[in-house]
Specification:
InterPro entries: LMW_PTPase, Ptyr_pPase, Ptyr_pPase_sf, Tyr_phospatase_low_mol_wt. The protein is of the alpha/beta class. It contains five helices and four strands.
Length: about 160
């Protein structure tokens, strides 16, 4: 059985598809991609069916990641099939925990940057949508830095489940 991770931001066109693509690459590099399912969604449905923001696609592809994506909205019913729900900022964290049907489901929600020891107290990945390319590049850097710690945590869970 796969370990399932879903990244969540606001509209599922900037931060969460970026995190999904980076983390999918990390699991492949680690050789656990067959054991981990990686997905993303938004707290809202404004962009459902849309591709990722062109600036997200550009930053991802320039760094060697897959830019293909179709936006969708997170559904509370998904909690039952997910092992970990990764929020990109504290607003998403709160919204997702409110949506969680049970306390156990609420406990599955974590902030991405909580997996980056260098993040300090600033655990939000800022929304780059209303800015320029530099915001998307900064976002990618934050996602990449946190993905290493997240990969280590997921690998421990996968290995524990395999024993």
């Amino acid at each position: 059985m796969s370990y399932r991770v879903c990244f969540v931001c606001t509209g599922n066109i900037c931060r969460s598809p970026m995190a999904e693509s980076v983390f999918r690459a990390r699991t492949a590099e680690a050789g656990i991609d067959g054991l981990v399912e990686v997905d993303s969604a938004g707290t809202g449905g404004w962009h459902e069916g849309d591709s990722a923001d062109p600036r997200t696609v550009s930053v991802l592809e320039e760094s060697g990641y897959d830019g293909g994506h179709t936006a969708r909205q997170f559904q509370p019913s998904w909690f039952s099939r997910l092992d970990l729900v990764i929020a990109l900022d504290t607003g998403h964290l709160k919204a997702l925990r409110r949506l969680a049907p049970t306390q156990e489901d609420a406990a599955k929600v974590r902030l991405l940057r909580s997996y980056d020891p260098a993040a300090g107290d600033d655990l939000d990945v800022p929304d780059p949508y209303y800015g320029g390319m530099d915001g998307f590049e900064e976002c990618l850097g934050m996602v990449e830095a946190a993905s290493e710690g997240l990969l280590a945590a997921v690998r421990r869970q996968v290995e524990a489940g395999a024993t």
